[in-house]
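--- STAGE predict ---
source: upstream dedup step, 1 unique chain passed
mode: sequence only
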Amino acid sequence: MKPTLVILAAGMGSRYGGLKQLDEVGPNGEAIIDYSLFDAIRAGFGKVVFIIRRDFEVAFKAQFDSKLKGRIEVEYVFQELTDLPEGFSIPDGREKPWGTGHAIRSAREAVKTPFAAINADDFYGEEAYDTMAKFLTGEVSENYYSMVGYRLDKTLSDNGTVSRGLCITDDMQNLIDIDELTKIATENNSIFYIRDEKKHGLKGNETVSMNFWGFHPSLFKYLEEGFVSFLEKEGKEMKSEFFIPMHVDDLIKAEKVKVKVLTSNADWFGVTYQEDKPVVIEKIQTLISAGKYPRSLWQ
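--- STAGE serialize ---
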């Protein structure tokens, strides 16, 4: 059975200033998602599930339905603030959904096979999809998941700070801890993060998570349990979020699952800020010139 690709595409891109998930970066109007889909299809994925806001539906279907027809099964699900476990309600004044863990939970009825979950606006590279597809068709189990790890220095932006999950592994390359660093920056060829108003140096060769996860459908049971606990503790807060890396970290600490870190030499790039877009366009053109992608993906 072919694995499924779940694409988290419900965010508004507040720092970017628009619907960056569909922003054109390829020579024929392709978005980063197009390249993710192209890589996933040639790696052997059989279905894509787009997690979007309901008001994105028309734009997404116009962008993807015709080009993907006959290539991969497509389904759309909606991340909605009202999608809560029984017994919980939306606190007065809350407008924002509940984060990436809540987003993946939205796909619980659509996903029936082992699956990868990715961000819509991140370019992960062909090798990452090949590596993940092999894991999802050969190693994954109800209590054995994975993530693709990247070198920190390949994931930074010249246009502002970024947040990254710093990964600590054991001798078997299993994840034992994720330290969420929220303000990573570069200055004078040095890399550092800010915590408690102090700078802490980084080497650049550290392994970080870019939210490219490999899961068994058993995750949905754990998500339900974790989301209930989250809502009991933080559900009344206006901006609290149920993040998938933190939930996975909780599962590891509770010894419910193991998570293998799959190494990739692929270059990651993405559009956190508007100023990142020209860099992404240039990198994609370089990959096309090198023969990694056809100039027109879907011809």
